[in-house]
Amino acid sequence: GAGVSQSPSNKVTEKGKDVELRCDPISGHTALYWYRQSLGQGLEFLIYFQGNSAPDKSGLPSDRFSAERTGGSVSTLTIQRTQQEDSAVYLCASRTDSAGYTFGSGTRLTVV
Amino acid sequence: RKEVEQDPGPFNVPEGATVAFNCTYSNSASQSFFWYRQDCRKEPKLLMSVYSSGNEDGRFTAQLNRASQYISLLIRDSKLSDSATYLCAVKGGATNKLIFGTGTLLAVQP
Would the N or C end of chain A have less CB density within 10 A of its end CB? Predict the structure, then answer.
């Protein structure tokens, strides 16, 4: 596709449930990032994948958060036992070495 | 101290005004610098990269001051359509993480 695709665009879940958010990066982009943006806040780095290297997980806020990137392409961010403070927009971005970062339109997660 | 800091604003300016935003970063090993624009309820979009010698794109000028560890964005002859949140972002050092500031809200008034 032409851009970074994220699904679902909106997700409402009950507290305590698990959720999976998906990111389809631009074809050929080797690096993939997940960020979280809470209402009125900046972008909080979560995790970064680069090729076959071990991911940089330093931004994950707790062990309830995990992410995978299969085959160097699609990535899934999983949040287990969701809490209300997990409510935010989760943004994915991808890039190549020569390109800037391109963001998807995000998944708006609401935990009720 | 946050790695990247910005004045959150809001900056309320009349059309035609010149407005400047600053952003400071704490990691002196940072290598790449960017300004992003984010419209309400939309994803951030790259506005411009910031080069050591400074760079200009139409009404927008970006500058880097490594000694003082800040970057700036100048918008001349501001338009209503410039109203948005402007985020600075810094990358480099030992990591390829792109770290964002909290953003500065600009509201251009008619």
Answer: N
